[in-house]
Amino acid sequence: MPDEVSDLTPMLSPDTESSVLIKSTSSRGNKYKNAITMIVLFLINLLNYMDRFAIAGVLEQIQDYFDIGDAEAGLLQTVFVCSYMALAPLFGYLGDRYSRKLMIILGVTLWSITTIAGSFVPKHLFWLFVLLRSLVGVGEASYSCVAPTIIADIFTHDMRTRMLAVFNIAVPLGGGLGYIVGSYVSKTFHDWRWALRVTPVFGAICVILLIVLVTEPVRGSADGAHMQKKSSWLSDVKNVIKIKSFLLITLGFTWVAFALGSLSWWGPIFLQKAHKLANGSEDSKDKANVSLYFGMITCGAGIIGVLLGSEIARRYRKRNPRGDPIVCGVAVLLAIPFLFCVLLLSKDYIVLTWIFIFIAETLLCSNWALITDMLMYIIIPTRRSTASSILIFIMHLLGDASSPYIIGEISDFFRKGADDDLSNWVSLRNALMLTPFVAILGGAAFLFAAMFIIQDRRRAEETIESMKISNNFGLSENA
């Protein structure tokens, strides 16, 4: 940048030259602030999913500790996601009107406190453990509804796509690390409760970083329209649910979340049972290894899937503006055969099963960033938190809030009182067979969304452009 300024110097007056230098310094300062904000939000998202799946990595130990069955084990995830889902509309409302930074600080603090508190619950108070897991969901809801909207307000166009991809890498990466940290910390300390005492420490560090380093951007600033919220929440909801592509994307994400939620929750236990049948005996070291392998595959597949999906969509979008939902839909449908193979072959073909898990997770994770990106460009800035909260509410209500419990209940039904190793594996496999069929519906919904994505994006851009004109002329517009 200094070279560019020096080249212009002969043509500039002293005042003009100063303004260029100030603008250059300001631009560098903004890039630095944006990078810091992005890093902190990424770290919080990483911890968010590490905390969520650390329990899945030690789920069998939790079942032994509290003496509970599959249905109650699935209930742990269900109550977490239900509270997360139920509070999402509230935080969506607040996120479009008040300080998003403050909401994130309070949210991270709450889920850190409740997570560590859960590690001290005695074995005869399972209901208290369930309650604390639900409160963790409250804290996470306040973060998830608003963090993507902050990213959308500091980046735009292809850079926004890339940064949302980076942000969403934390979903599979954090989930994978959750399995690994959960299983190996519990193994090191010979107590599963230590698995819940890792993320709260880093949560406290993130709160400090938020307070000291992060500056909240003005809503709509990246799009050049500084919008002030003046419409009611009910009006926002009515406008959002009129957007056809939004509804179809939400349904697609919901059905994919049903499949991913149940597989993520029950996957390690299902594979542990398969390994036990293949080896003819149970080995505590093998249990830890299954969680480790599952976590490593989730991390690797998630990173590759998110980056690959975003890059393919970014390139394809230049030739076909409907590219984002098409890439999402095709990727989900391609994953279906591999999901069936995982469920059918896991007992007899262990290595092949791990390969198919990697391929399936890569394909399913490829839509994470694209969904957020589509949401940001079909919704105007002052309704993005509300739209995110609606998506979160529906996605969890019909998706991963209910799926772990439903799969647990179906598994208990197929078991019919039998308690041998083969019956345990078969019953859980039969229950998990539901997930590929549900995922097919998700892939179809994404493809239908491609029919409406262009007109919905154009409508949002026209609204933002009208706000720019209004701002230039000093007019007051309802957002």
Name the shape in a single word: globular
Oligomerization category of the chains in this entry: single chain
The overall pLDDT average reads 80
Largest sheet properties: none
CATH architecture: Up-down Bundle
Report the order of strands and helices. HHHHHHHHHHHHHHHHHHHH
So what's the CATH class? Mainly Alpha
Total strands: the figure is 0
Structural class: mainly alpha
Intertermini distance: 37 Å
Fraction in helix? over 70%
Give the CATH topology: Growth Hormone, Chain: A
Helical stretch count? 20
Tally of individual domains: 1
Describe the structure.
This protein is mostly helical and 479 residues long. It has a single domain, classed as Growth Hormone, Chain: A, CATH 1.20.1250.20. The N terminus and C terminus are likely disordered. GO terms for molecular function: transmembrane transporter activity. It is found in: Membrane. This is Major facilitator superfamily (MFS) profile domain-containing protein.
